[in-house]
Amino acid sequence: HPHTNLEGNYTRVNEFLLAALSPSWQSQAALFVVFLLVYTATLAGNTLIMLTVTSDPRLSTPMYFLLGNLSFLDLCYSTVTAPKMLMDFLVEKRSISFDACMAQLFFLHFVGAAEMFLLTIMAYDRYVAICKPLHYPNIMNRQLCSWLVAASWTGGFIHSTVQTILTMRLPFCGPNKVDNFFCDVPPVIKLACTDTYVIELLMVSNSGLISSSCFVILVTSYATILVRIRSPEGRRKALNVCASHLTVVTLFFGPCIFIYARPFSTFSVDKLVSVLYNIITPMLNPLIYTLRNKDVKSAMRKLRSRETISGGKVDM
């Protein structure tokens, strides 16, 4: 039910209808089960990493401090869209109120941009650790790490505030069908009853610039690391560390650049790409980082044996 907005003489839509991920009821039910498992795995995996990093004194280094923060961001990121999406699998009418839609859009960009900045900081951390090992403790001290994490949150907040304000100020008078399973800037902007060309350019230059420039910085820093290392043994160790980081970075940035760094023409694969970086990537990050990391694995074993001892027979 639209209501009249006093600023203009148009009526604004009260709610948006979200797209279904699949047409039939059977496949919706199957997808519900799959995504419920994925979301549960995301929550469990990232919580476990946060617990491990905070409980083991050997993991109180900048790298693990940043990894713990990444896990927290992944947890928040999937929670912005997954619970609502899971509920929508079970209902006939997938609606979201205008305010809830704007809130979802805000937190999506807030956490997403913060994660981009954090991944860039993690690349810088590895660069200093591998290329300037003697100066590492002085450069990447706890204070600087805390400042950098705070800066990535602040950057995300500013980016998201700009995106959300630009979107909210547009007139929405119907149609109200969002061509995705959650509210994001590209599909929502398409529904505005005005020419959004300038806004789209602003958004693309904003989101696209952030994702593309962070990605370039990341790849450059990892390339520099590999070029700077002369010994085959050192290069193999560096490759091992960088490979897991680059996997995460590619999984996260690839889809973001694909969706945000072009003016908003819709491709049929957009929904699929959205599922990848919204739901799947946050689940994969803990796996990628822990499977390739001896310290985290041994800390997790210690945590598990401590749980077993303290809880009698209770094993995690």
UniProtKB/TrEMBL annotation:
Output the CDD domains linked to this UniProt entry: 7tmA_OR4Q2-like (cd15938)
Q: How does it sit in the membrane?
A: Multi-pass membrane protein
Does the record's keyword annotation contain Lipid metabolism? no
Chain ranges of the G-protein coupled receptors family 1 profile domain: 45-289
Per the record, its GO cellular-component terms are: plasma membrane
Q: Which residue ranges does UniProt annotate as crossing the membrane?
A: 29-51, 63-82, 102-124, 144-162, 209-227, 239-260, 272-291
- Entry-linked Gene3D superfamilies: Rhodopsin 7-helix transmembrane proteins
Please report a single Pfam family linked to this protein: 7tm_4
Where does it reside?
Cell membrane; Membrane
This protein's UniProt keywords: Cell membrane, G-protein coupled receptor, Membrane, Olfaction, Receptor, Sensory transduction, Transducer, Transmembrane, Transmembrane helix
Database matches in InterPro entries: GPCR_Rhodpsn, GPCR_Rhodpsn_7TM, Olfact_rcpt, Olfactory_Receptors
> GO molecular function: any one?
olfactory receptor activity
- Read off the SUPFAM superfamilies from this record: Family A G protein-coupled receptor-like
**Coiled coil ranges:** none
- Family under the similarity heading: Belongs to the G-protein coupled receptor 1 family.
Q: What is this protein called?
A: Olfactory receptor
Task: Quote the gene name from the UniProt entry.
Answer: OR4Q2
